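Most newcomers find our protein records easier to grasp once they have seen one. To make this concrete, we reproduce a full record directly below:

===
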Amino acid sequence: MLEDLTLKFDKILKKITGQGKITESNISDTLREIRLVLLDADVNYKVVKKFIEDIKVKAIGKEVLASVTPGQLLTKIIFDELTELMGSKNRDLTFNPSGITVVLLVGLQGSGKTTFSAKLAKMLKEKNRNVLLVAADIYRPAAIEQLKILGGQINVPVFSIDDSKDAVKISTESLNFAKENKLNTVIIDTAGRLHVNEDLMDEIQRIKEKVNPYETLFVVDSMTGQDAVNSAKSFHDRINFDGIVLTKLDGDARGGCALSIKAVVDKPIKFVSLGEKLDSIEPFYPDRLASRILGKGDIISLVEKAQQQFDEHEAEDLEKKLLQNKFDFEDFLKQVKMIKKMGSLKSLLGMVPGLSSQMKNIDVDDKQLVKVESIIFSMTKSERKNPKILNGSRRMRIARGSGNSIQDVNRLIKQFSEMQKMMKMMSSSIGKKKLPNMKNYKLN
């Protein structure tokens, strides 16, 4: 995510780190490089100009404390300005306190509205909202069927009217269906449209007037850069949406859209969509993305992802096994499954401070986790519980059963053995002390 931008910022800030103090000369050189990087990343020219001016005003004349380097001070100033540029703070969905909350999704064709609507429905359902998906895209072939399949996967009802060519009627009648079935949240997936298509823009305006949405979200492919920003402005001028959803952000190396769109449209980014899985959706936090852009990782989001998969009782059992040096392949398999649910390995490693700038040329293959699972699944219960019995013939059987080479099996067993040794050292050094319990940590 935004890896090109991260690498370039890292290179620029390293140059000024060795300087004794911030001067007008070295800050001008640094800001000139930052300006070129942002323009190359397809950030809006006016946004870049203001961003550079704001940093210059705050940096020049700033006293550098003995404990702070010029690089650290400038990094902090840039971090604050990036955060402000992208919206300052998280803006969540607002819900109708006295009726049905209608969320209307609009945007260009191919922006990922249908998939996002299912992701949002899943997220809201997990927050105990009673959700209805509405298939109002009557133009794209198989759009309605796609939404029905996605709704089935998350066990959320999908409202549609067979053979109807009236998106306004489908949208309005869905509200009656929601009321009759005591559903308090309606997400309307509309057709993709160009802002220059007057008929389709009139249609979306009529839908909005009829259903009176509590939230209208503009869904945009972040990889399209300035085109996305220009489209957002045109849509906003016509229908005045409430927030923005950035899809495919995990594939965006440059970041022009993410850095420009809030400043140009003056509407908050509310969600980001990362990948195709239905749980790959996150509320947008400007400060966290700013931290990742500057190569500082995003440890808060990483902890939150872990907490979503966290089971208190299993954690207590794991703690006991670690202290007693009884960690086996069954326990290891549980940890692999938890990691898989958290997202792609490259995305998770990019959240670790210091690692994000090193991920550019590293090929992190999620299929390796699948390989690990297949090997462990091919073991008997006694082999998982007691890896010491894994002799040569057993390893050959496991390799054949899992469809892997004997080298793959030997490599995993060796890595596991080394991990056990490390855990034994940890458990002996901890002794009677309790391991930190995740439930005692609170995120501000």
Q: What stands out?
A: The first strand starts at residue 101 and ends at 107. The chain has three domains: 3-85, 101-294, 302-440.
